[in-house]
TrEMBL record, chains A, B:
It comes from Thermithiobacillus plumbiphilus. The keyword DNA damage does not apply. It is found in: Periplasm. This is Cytochrome c peroxidase. GO terms for molecular function: cytochrome-c peroxidase activity. The keyword Metal-binding applies. Keywords: Heme, Iron, Metal-binding, Oxidoreductase, Periplasm, Peroxidase, Signal. It is an enzyme of class 1 (oxidoreductase). Its EC number is 1.11.1.5.
């Protein structure tokens, strides 16, 4: 009977979880942003190619490294000529899930495609003065012409910044990392350890899931960071970032950030928009205090960590294995 | 009979080639530098980990990218804080073959192990002030302790710069890229196209193979760059590098460089110690003039390119697929 009870409890938890979360799709293509194998393959090469940047050292993979689960391990990213970025690099894995709300910590990008286009002229990112510079650099690598033609067959001159964005976006829309939690949501309750299930229960009952929900376990809304206490008092952040306020100039957006997706969060320290917190248990405690006015017990933290671990999936093969880039000089006849 | 003659010619060429070159071994371990799976796996993680460098952006893979065949596509490498390196990044693929002579363009490293140790404190490379800084950074990543212990089981405190070098060296000693030319040397004459075989013939008869020989098709000796003409007049190099002279202060070493290995050379532009030449056919023409006092015909150049293409192997799987690094914060319990 004890086992029977536990099973009933397990089923109730699964039912509750299914109302809040969804398993990952096979890819993140949408009607508006469909993908094709040729675009994905081109986008994958572009993602890993540093030669398009102003100093030849910056590719998307410079800040979104596969070996660090699509992040760079830094508090704040560093781009061309060693330039400091204002915020922490989020992972590109599953990032395209956040279609409903804009990308970046402050929601100042429309889509992964828009993000990729703007990165070209981002001063601390690729650092190019204008899009034409990117096009010229792409054209100087003969191997890209057939790839752009195959990806955009109806386009008479396919070297454009929009096609750059479309191709990289198509690639990013394949970067899903199905995890034990997805198997659980699909009905295999044993995919989560008892501790992870206890953590899931806490994650819901404490209130985390009121913000971190949906397929990404986050990425569905904006929220003020520090609803109960100024966040910088808990994180030790030196110069508080005003968040979405700087984008919208709307007083209600002061200290508002996107609720980040928590998939693979165990693998992507340091935490928060400024990378101010190194250890995940600390980040969880800060969340409870800042966002919910609660103090968690050690057991609760341990259980929530176990749940968050169940969000770690295997790296996509087309991300962990890097593509061979077309050489910029002589092409094999 | 014509076919018979051709075959005889083919066999004579193969015989000649076997006197000058050798197929790649399975790995490049030596008695002095043996390898073990635990060391290779640790070395592979260290090779791809940027968190040990002074600004957290520089790993070996920063300048030796798998997507660019172990090079960076730059004329001269760029390290921490955007600092310029004085020379072009050679590929790490098959680099450990050059045991007999020291590594680097000017021969100022004893082995791949020594190279990896010194990179830690190289000002434009990892940029650390002292080895202790590297050790401290390694210790701060809990996941490395079990890996160092497994790799150096008899070492009570395995975090040392020598073990760093030994592990990375062990990994590098696995990075071989068997190519069509190896199949040819093993007796499969059809592994090389007729044009490539003609190129091999030219490569030998013109005199290239007098310097570029052995398993690496290079990497066996030092030679003056510019025996018949000042090299900078042909390459357009701005400030001529004095080469090995700056290392030995011996007048005979003025403008002397290591004869580089030519394996995968088609994939590793730009060329020469300063990356001054972009196109391989130009590099070949310059070599003939500067080193042999000869002017090659277009056909000769085309054939030699075809031969050099037969030196391109598949990327090693443990290089093209990057390792997942231990996270620096909380470790899964
Ligand atoms: C110099 C470092 C750097 C480079 C280069 C870089 N990124 Fe980023 N990326 C970041 C940082 C930092 C952010 C967060 C920016 C912010 O919120 O202000 C980010 C955000 C993103 C996001 C949004 C993620 C989310 O969950 O909101 C995506 C997607 C992304 N980058 C993909 C790319 C692609 C594709 C490229 C190449 C075209 C690229 N990045 C180049 C550092 C970089
Ligand atoms: C009211 C909304 C809200 C609630 C409730 C909430 N969060 Fe958050 N969470 C956020 C926002 C917004 C951020 C981004 C903060 C920043 O970095 O600016 C965030 C960030 C995080 C991060 C860091 C992610 C990263 O990659 O840097 C973790 C981990 C996290 N939350 C876990 C939790 C947990 C666990 C709970 C419950 C104890 C919780 N959150 C409750 C809104 C919320
Ligand atoms: C900042 C760029 C940069 C970094 C970081 C870097 N290298 Fe290099 N590497 C170079 C350059 C440039 C050379 C040639 C130096 C010279 O000859 O003066 C080189 C030479 C080498 C060589 C000799 C190759 C040959 O054929 O002579 C090996 C092996 C090597 N590097 C491996 C590594 C390893 C292992 C690491 C990490 C521990 C590393 N490199 C870090 C740029 C870099
Ligand atoms: C007398 C010795 C010698 C001869 C003969 C010689 N080379 Fe070289 N080769 C060198 C040296 C030394 C370098 C390195 C020059 C530098 O960059 O400082 C080199 C560099 C090269 C490079 C550039 C490799 C790279 O990765 O940057 C190529 C390609 C090359 N040689 C091909 C040839 C060909 C083809 C021939 C015959 C036509 C030839 N060499 C004849 C000594 C020689
Ligand atoms: Ca992070
Ligand atoms: Ca080169």
């Amino acid at each position: 009977p004890a086992a029977g009870l536990a099973e009933t409890g397990d089923q109730a938890l699964l039912k509750q979880a299914r109302q809040l979360f969804k398993p990952l799709p096979d890819n993140m293509a949408t009607q508006e942003n469909p993908i094709s194998p040729a675009r994905v393959e081109l986008g994958r090469k572009l993602f890993f190619d540093p030669r398009i940047s102003v100093d030849g050292t910056v590719s998307c993979a410079r800040c979104h490294l596969p070996q660090l689960y699509g992040t760079d391990g830094l508090r704040k990213a560093i781009g061309n000529h060693g330039k400091a970025n204002p915020r922490n690099s989020p992972t590109v894995l599953n990032a395209a899930l956040q279609g409903a709300i804009a990308a970046h910590w402050r929601g100042d990008r429309k889509s992964v495609e828009d993000q990729a286009v703007q990165a070209l002229v981002g001063p601390p990112s690729f650092g190019l003065a204008k899009y034409e510079d990117a096009i010229a650099k792409l054209k100087a690598i003969p191997g890209y012409l057939p790839l752009f033609k195959a990806a955009f067959p109806r386009d008479p001159s396919p070297f454009t910044q929009d096609n750059w964005g479309t191709a990289i976006g198509a690639y990013e829309r394949t970067l899903v990392t199905p995890a034990p939690f997805d198997a659980y949501l699909k009905g295999n309750t044993r995919a989560l350890s008892p501790t992870a299930q206890a953590g899931l229960r806490e994650f819901i009952s404490v209130g985390c899931a009121s913000c971190h929900n949906g397929t990404g376990v986050g990425g569905t809304m904006y929220q003020k960071f520090g609803r109960f206490e100024d966040y910088w008092k808990l994180t030790g952040s030196k110069e508080p970032d005003k968040g979405r306020f700087d984008v919208t100039k709307n007083a209600a957006d002061l200290y508002v950030f996107k609720v980040p997706i928590l998939r693979n969060v165990v693998m992507t320290p340091p935490y928060f928009h400024d990378g101010s917190v190194t250890e995940l248990p600390d980040a969880i405690r800060i969340m409870a205090r800042a966002q919910l006015g609660k103090t968690l017990s050690d057991t609760q933290v341990k259980q929530i960590v176990a749940f968050l671990e169940s969000l770690t999936g295997k790296l996509p093969e087309n991300f962990q294995t890097v593509p061979v880039l077309p050489t910029s000089a002589f092409q094999a006849p």
